[in-house]
Amino acid sequence: xxxxxxxxxxxxxxxxxxxxxxxxxxxxxxxxxxxxxxxxxxxxxxxxxxxxxxxxxxxxxxxxxxxxxxxxxxxxxxxxxxxxxxxxxxxxxxxxxxxxxxxxxxxxxxxxxxxxxxxxxxxxxxxxxxxxxxxxxxxxxxxxxxxxxxxxxxxxxxxxxxxxxxxxxxxxxxxxxxxxxxxxxxxxxxxxxxxxxxxxxxxxxxxxxxxxxxxxxxxxxxxxxxxxxxxxxxxxxxxxxxxxxxxxxxxxxxxxxxxxxxxxxxxxxxxxxxxxxxxxxxxxxxxxxxxxxxxxxxxxxxxxxxxxxxxxxxxxxxxxxxxxxxxxxxxxxxxxxxxxxxxxxxxxxxxxxxxxxxxxxxxxxxxxxxxxxxxxxxxxxxxxxxxxxxxxxxxxxxxxxxxxxxxxxxxxxxxxxxxxxxxxxxxxxxxxxxxxxxxxxxxxxxxxxxxxxxxxxxxxxxxxxxxxxxxxxxxxxxxxxxxxxxxxxxxxxxxxxxxxxxxxxx
Length: 506
Description:
The chain is an alpha/beta fold. Helix content is 34%, strand content 23%.
């Protein structure tokens, strides 16, 4: 399906209707000219492009390059000398304008899709894969095409499949992916909604059939993200404004506030492990071998469900997926099959030594809330074993994670190794020293090993058996973001297998 070819006047009217036009600039004289492309990348401009000047690092030269390649008008919060005589449409908020223009230029593809949006401090990716697995079990059983997914791990819209760059793509990329899903006949899309995407209008114009709110905790608090927790929470709650149905976790902190925000939706489906009054209620949660089993009661059925992935905390994510299935009237058989078969790259990957004395868990847990749940689950599922945790924290952002992850490790782990995890502009040793401040109150000292490969080797080979070793933060990622940019690295799961092989050989 092709993007619609609309005159510039249509885009101008859209900005006018939403009160985004600013200044006293004269009406552009080219309103009748057809817009062939809306773009914010000067390298992708073609003749007939409406160019968007966005970003704190934007330079006038980018506009000059775009005009040279064929841009005939531009949208900006201020005029640029480099724009010359090319018409400038001044707006009050370029982020909001970009979201609206992106949706309009792609013909509002979300209106032809059934989209599930997921937000929460932890569990978004796992929940997304659970939902996709259930939907696919249902659709493929009818001979229909698999659904699309836009996640932290992968972007798969039915036509394009690639590693994800952002949890939620930028507006023009996002709308392209949604239009691809329409073209591919995917029909259902499951996607993660980051707090940044909600706060800065990346998802404006995306109609959600269902909005899932998993949980809320401290994360992304920094000068370049959210100035405080209140801003973070308020940004998360914005998801309900664009959804028909809300799925709300009654067990999350501030559940009453979440329910109040969700009341703007036409329907609310609740889920819980604590409140039997929830629409979707889980009980009798237990570990059986390497699986998790639980009893679930919904308005339509009662059933015993099995999660193929370990991790008791994943029941919360599974319940969210069951709640979405309720909203879509997906048969119980597809729910059971989907949860049993679901696998998430980099989430709760489990590897065991030949003698069974060393269990290694690889997980993407990268904030305090996620790490606490992961370590508590490891304590419960592997009683009597030494618990080792290896982790680091990103550099230059999410500074609050250092306290959260340090506190979780200090309280719950026997042995702690600190290493690199996308240090970016900071020195790994400085980040580790910062984390150590939050280990000290627990009488714990983290062993600092800057090189992640070496750290993983020591974490496994130097443990005291029987042991469980948790490798947190990177999951299946194959790039390490260092000072000079992303550099290739071996995924934690592969490293774990290689080191366990050395352990097995003695």
